[in-house]
UniProtKB/TrEMBL annotation:
Lineage: Bacteria, Bacillati, Actinomycetota, Actinomycetes, Kitasatosporales
Hydrolase listed as a keyword: no
The protein's name: ATP-binding protein
GO MF, one example: protein serine/threonine kinase activity
Record key words, sorted: ATP-binding, Kinase, Nucleotide-binding, Serine/threonine-protein kinase, Transferase
Organism: Streptomyces scabichelini
InterPro entries: Anti-sigma-factor_SerPK, HATPase_C_sf, HATPase_dom
Keyword Nucleotide-binding: yes
UniProt xrefs under CDD domains: HATPase_RsbW-like
Domain of life according to the entry: Bacteria
Domain Histidine kinase/HSP90-like ATPase: 16-128
Length: 136
């Protein structure tokens, strides 16, 4: 398991992705592995959302990664202190000319499953899991 707090900024989101890649190296998930690319994308999108939409001044967001070696499932959890929760049932691709709005649609497309849970204290945890080896 890996857990680290990051500042709720674009730099913090970038650092979260970089730290996640280092953790994947420690778990033996090397560059070029499809699982690595999937996790990198999911961390990037969830961390960017926490920094952009979940930001509360003076508060960090937290990244947690869990790896189930037998099934090769990685669970990504990003927790922030903002009370607004994304609605998984309302995810859709944004206008193709828009500057943003595709993050959770990408998560929906790439993750095996994802959701939003309450957390202890204020805020929520947005999580995503990768596809198990051999599919579902």
């Amino acid at each position: 398991m890996f857990t680290q707090a990051f500042p709720a900024t674009s730099l913090g989101a970038s650092l979260a992705r970089r730290f996640a890649l280092v953790q994947l190296d420690d778990w033996g998930i090397r560059p070029g592995a499809p699982l690595r690319d999937t996790v990198a994308l999911l961390v990037a999108e969830l961390a960017a959302n926490a920094a952009r939409h979940g930001r509360v001044p003076g508060r960090n967001f937290e990244l947690r990664l869990l790896y189930e070696h037998e099934t090769a499932v990685v669970r990504i959890e990003v927790s922030d202190t903002h009370l607004r929760r994304p609605d998984p049932s309302a995810v859709s691709m944004a206008d193709l000319d828009a500057d943003g709005g595709r993050g959770l649609a990408l998560v929906e497309a790439v993750a095996h499953r994802w959701g939003v849970d309450d957390r202890t204290g204020p805020g929520k945890t947005v999580w995503a899991e990768t596809e198990p080896v051999g599919g579902s």
